[in-house]
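Before the break, one more example. Copy the sequence into your notebook; we will annotate it together after we see the structure.
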Amino acid sequence: MVVLSLAAFASASALRGVDPLLPLLAENFGTSAGGASAVITAFAVAYGVLQLANAPLSERYGKYRMVFWVTAISAAGNLACAFAPSLPLLVLARFATGATVGAIVPLAIAWIGDAVPYERRQSVLARFLIGNMLGMALATTASGWLGEMYGWRAIFVALSGLYVLTAALLWFELQTNPVTRLTSSTRESMAQAFLRMLRLTRIYWVRVILVMVFLEGALFYGPLAFAAYHAHRHLQLGIAGSGTLIAAFAVGGLLYASVAGRLVPRLGERGLVLAGGLFIGAGYIGLALAPGPGYAVPGLMALGAGLYMLHNTLQLHATQMAPESRGAAVALFAFCLFTGQSAGVWLASHAVDAISTPPVFAVAAVGMPILALEFRRRLAAHRLI
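Here is what the structure looks like once it is written out:
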């Protein structure tokens, strides 16, 4: 679990590490912040689409083994990003990297779903995602400082080294721990696997979870991609300062993870979902209206805590919505999450270039609590079935 959490750290670092660099990329390649955000969109598109291939491969070769292989390949992908000579080639390298990085967290979650009983899974997932949250916090901070001192390429060199280290630890675990080498008995073809995933969408509760996570990806992560740019442009912070400020988002998530074991039994799933939506709404309002960096910190922390209240509940149901096809179900979940994120970043990029960031944050501030209320209602109805 510790090594898987480190892999999640590496995955989140690659996902969010580019956010503070948008002003640098825009200046270096002669484009706008919206144009530079193509490096985020391309990564998210590949992250989502390739889930459809990762799931059947993991069922055949083993989820933990697949995490090792995609981690090792991701080291090369990040090195290719570091040496990209133009924006189109950087976007292409980010797409290729997203295709492999995108498998890490979903496959790890599916493995946890196989190994951990349902009644303990919520708190275990929260602890596993500590690595993910630390990756978000340290990546934006490191990316900002490295970018300011050494240029935008430095973070990709650092990420490549991180992936080499993580792959080595995963390999050691595969050699020494028999549990990590368990594989499914299935030997179905890729076509059969795709059809099985398609059949899962006939299940009502699967459709509910997939639609909810798609909308969460669009409404939450689209605006979040421009939080560091907002800090640079509207709060007058440098590249390093804006990356450090965004770390407050992950701090909020870590605070939630530290009390999740006590909070989950008290609030229950529906309480967590509602609280998460309200925290996110308040967080985006606070970020949009903050007159200075210090005033933005509580809003960013509320975003982190609120996201993990809501998203962890969605993840929990993703591991249980089709237990007999858990790998395929989690792959569909990740596909919808990052397809939604791709759409959200693309829409937000046009809105930011046209009307700036505060209105984009306002849309999320209204939309996320509404989404949480609807999911809470669906949860209540599902428990009655």
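The two ends are 34 Å apart (CA to CA). The chain has a mean pLDDT of 86. Try to locate both features in your own notes.
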